[in-house]
Amino acid sequence: MPLDVAWSAKQTGEAHCCADMTSALTFECDQHADPFECGDSALIYNPVFDEYGLVVHDGGASYVVISHCPWCAAKLPESQRDRWFDETDALDLGPDDETPEKYRTSAWRKP
């Protein structure tokens, strides 16, 4: 997730390409609330950047961005990561400034 934006495993309001993708993204583990801590969690969706990724279980919150659905092969949305950084960099925030609320959710990229 971007900088000071907390990760939320619960994603609501997003339509995904197929039932298998939705199932993988809504997987809930009885032992881990964070998908990056659960070895059974393989896929995440980052709504701020509008990107999908394969979880890298390296002890952190790493993932590899994917461009197509592993199940139905649908082309996934182009990541908005670069645009997010361009826009937030243009705000000229200082090192102690928090990311504005608008940029903590997908709201910043929606009309």
Radius of gyration: 15 Å
Low-confidence stretches: none
Q: Let me know the average pLDDT.
A: 88
* Whole-number count of domains: 1
**Helical content band:** 10-25%
- Main beta sheet: strand number and arrangement? 3 strands, antiparallel
Protein structure class: alpha+beta
The number of helical segments is 2
The coarse silhouette is globular
Strand numbers in spatial order across the main sheet: 1-2-3
Order of helices and strands: HEEEH
Strand content: 5-15%
The total count of strands amounts to 3
Distance between the termini: 21 Å
State the oligomer.
single chain
Could you characterize what this model shows?
The chain is α+β, with helices and mostly antiparallel strands. 15% of the residues lie in helices and 14% in strands. It has one domain. The chain has a three-stranded antiparallel beta sheet. The longest helix is centred in the C-terminal third of the chain and has 10 residues, at 81-90.
